[in-house]
Amino acid sequence: MRRQTALVFRWTLLQQLRDPSGLLVIFLIPVLLNPVALWLGDRFQSRLQGKDAQLLVRVPEELAQWILPEDQLELVSGPHSEDNDSRALASVEPARDGEPARIHYRSIRQQSVLAKSRLETVLQRFQEHEVDVALEQAGLGITYQQVLDIQERDLATSQESQAGLLGRLLPLILLFVVMNAAMLSALDAITGERERSTLETILSSGVNRLSLLMGKVGVVVGVALLSGLLALMSLWASLALGLYHPSTGGLDLPFHAIPWLLVLFLPVTLFLGLVTSLVAAQAPDFRTGQFNIAMLMLVVLAMAGVSAFPSLSLSAFLALVPVSGVAMAMREVMVGHYQWGLLALVLLASLLHLGLAVYLGARMVVREDLLSGRYSVAERRALGRFAPEVGGIFALCLLANWFLGQRVQSLDFVWGTAFTQVVIVMGLALGGVIWVGARPSITWQLRWPGRGDTALALVAGLGAPGISLLLARVQAPLLPIASSYREQVNAALDLDLPMPVLLALFAALPALSEELLFRGTLLGLLRRHSSPIKSVLVVALLFGTMHMQVVRVLPTTCLGLLLGAAAMRGRSLLLPMGIHVIHNGLLVLLGYGHWFPDGDPPMVLLLPMAFLSVASVAAMGRRP
Amino acid sequence: MIEARGLVKRFHSPRTVVAVDHVSFRCLPGQIFGLLGPNGAGKTTTLRILSTLMAPDEGSAVLNGYDVRREPERVRASIGYLSTSTGLYGRLSAREMILYFARLQGVKEPGRRVDELVEEMGLAAFADTRCDRLSTGMKQKVSIARVLVHDPPILILDEPTAGLDVLVARSFMELMERARAAGRCVLFSTHIMSEAERLCDRIAVIHRGRILANASLEELRLATGQHYMESIFVHLVEQAEKQA
Question: Which terminal residue of chain B has fewer beta carbons within 10 Å of its beta carbon, N or C?
C-alpha cells in the first residue's frame, strides 16, 4: 500500500509540475503577494503620512501661531472667499458667543480626515495653553496643572508595534496562499480525474483506493506547504529589501517567531490540504468542485480573520477553534508575548483536528461511491431519505450557534458576528450539500431570476419589515421584547462603524448566509421528496426556532414563509436573498435613523407594507 | 473466466430506470464474448459492474475466481479494462503512461515490459510524445498497451473501435484475435454488427438492460432464421418489443 501511495504521489506531482499555467498561479501568488501588498501599503501610507504631505487648512489668526512645522499643515493664503475656502482640506471656526469651536472637514476624503486630526492637535495645544493661563490667574500652582495634564505613553516597543501589525495580516496571507495552492492542486489532481475521463482508468487498475487518495492528498498538501513556505520566504525577503518603510521605521519578521510559525503552520496546512482534497473528491464535476472549494476558502478566511482584531487575544477557548486558534497563535508569537500552555493547546487542538479529518477521510474513501461519483442526489431522492439530513444539519447549526457562535460574539461582536454567519451558517449550508453528494448550484437554485420576479422581489423586500414589525407589535402584549434583545440590537447599532459596514455586517451577511442554509440547503433537500407547502412550512419553522428568542419566533417564522414562497415560486435563491437583505437593511436603518417617534412605523404604514410584500411574492413565477 | 449471475443495476435519475436487468452470462478463457446492443442498452453499466467500478444492486459476478463484491482489488488485478474514452493522462508521454500503470500493477521489470509493448503496438515513433498530442488512433493504441501491461487473463473492452478509422480498427480486431489465441478471456461491447460477426465466439444481444439472446452466431442464425447479424438483431428486438 505504501508503495502504491508513493507511486501515485510521484506521478501526480510529475503531472502537476508539467502544467505551467497551474504552477504559475500556485507559486507566483505566494512569491508576489507579499511584496505587492507591502509596496502598495507603503504607497498608501506614504500618501497619508508621508513627510512631504503638507495639508492645506484655513484657521483663524489667533490659532495660526500654534501650528508647528511638525504638524505638516499649510495655511490657505489669500482673502476669505468661497474659492479659497474650497482649497482647504479642513478649517476651524473659532468659538463665539458661548458656541464651541468647530472643525469643518469632509469625511469622504482621507486627506481631509487627516487634516482634521492634525487640526485637533493644534486646538488641543491652544486649549492647554489657555487652561495654563487660567489656572495661573486663579492662583493655582503648578501641582494642579500637572494633575490636569495627562500624557499618554505607549508601552509597546516600536518592534512590538510593528510585529503586531504584521501579526494581524500574516496569518490571513499565509492561510490564503495555502488554500489557494491546495484548491488548484486538488482540482487538478482529484476533480480533474473525472473531468479528463481518467477516473475509470485509474479506478479499474489494481491500485488500492486508500493509496490512491492518500497519494493525491500528499501532492495537495505538499504543494500547499511549499506555497506557504514560499510566502514566508517572500515576506522575509520583501522586508529585508526594505519594500515597506513607514514613518515609524521598518518592519521586520522577528527571528524568534520563525520556528514557532513553522511548527504552527505544518499541522494546519496538513488539515486544510486534507479537507480541500476531500471536498474535491466529493464533487461530481469540475465546476462543482471549484464552487465548493471557493466556499470552503471563504469559511477558512473568516476563521483566520480573527487575527485582524486587536481587541482579541489567544484564550483556551479560541485555541480549540480550528484555524482561528492557529491564526491567533501566529499573531502572538510574532509579537513575542505568548503563553507556552496556550501554544501547546493550539498545537494539540490542530493535531486533533487533523486526526479527525484523517479519520473522516478514511471512512469516506472506503465507500466505493466516493471516487466513482455514484453517491448521487437522484438516488437519495428516490429513497426519500433527506429528512434525517435536514434535521441533522439544523441541530448541528443550533448547537454550534449556541456553544460557539454566542461565545465568539462575546469575545468580539464584529468578528463574532462574521464568524457565526460565514463559518457556522454558511459552512453548514455548504457542508450539508457536500455531505449528501449534491451539486450546490442545483440544490440552492443559484440561477438569475427574470426581470419581473426581480422587480417583485424588490417590492416584497421593501414591504417585508411590515410583516415582522406588525407581528412583533401584535404579540407585544403577550410577549414583550426582552431587554437583553433590545440591548443586543442597540449594541450593534451603537458600534462606531460606518453605515455601509453596519449594513454589510448586520443586514447583508446574515441574510445571505441564512438564505444559503434555510432556503438553499434545507429547503433544497426537503423539496425533493416533500410537497412544496410542507417543505416551506417546515423550513420556516426551523428558521423561526433558529433565532433562539421566543419573541422572534412568530415574526421570523412568518418571514420564513414569505422567503420560502419566493424561492419556490421564483425558482431562484437570489429572490429570497434580495428580499431578506432589503428587509434587514430597512430594519437597521429604522433602528439607526430614529425616523418615527415610537421607534417603529405606525400601524397604518405597516399594514399596506405587509400586504404589498405578500402580494408581490404571490405574483412571482407567472410566465408571460 | 467471467461468470455473471442475475446482475441488476438501477439508476434513479430523474425516475428509476433498470439499466441492467438480471443479466447472466459466462465467458470462458480463449473466447471472445461480444455484448451487442444499441446505445443505452446497458452494455457499459454491465462492464462497469464487472470491472468493480460500480456495485450491482442484485446478483453477483465472479472473475478469475474472485467475487466483484468481496474481492474487488483481486478482480482489478486480474482484468484489463478499457473504457469508452481513452482515459490517458495528457501530460505524460505514451511510454510514461504505460510505465505508470506497469508500476501500479506491480509488474516485475516494468521498463522491459514497456519496451516490449511499445514495439508490439508500433508505438516506437511516438513513445516519447505527450499523450495529449497523439492522434485518436495512437491514443487508443496507448490505452490498449496500458490495459495489457500486467498481462491480465481477462480483457474487458468497452466499444474499443468506436471513432477509429478502418485500418486502426482492423489492427484492433487482430489484437483481440491474438489475445484469444493466447488463452485470454475477452469481453467486449459494441454496436457494430460486422465486428461481432467477425470476432465473437459467443454473442449476447442486450436491449433495455435485458439479454435477449446468448449464443454463437450459428445458433443465433438457426434460432431467428436470419443470416446477417443486423437482421438477427432487429428480429430479436422486434420480438422483445412485441412481448413487452
Answer: C
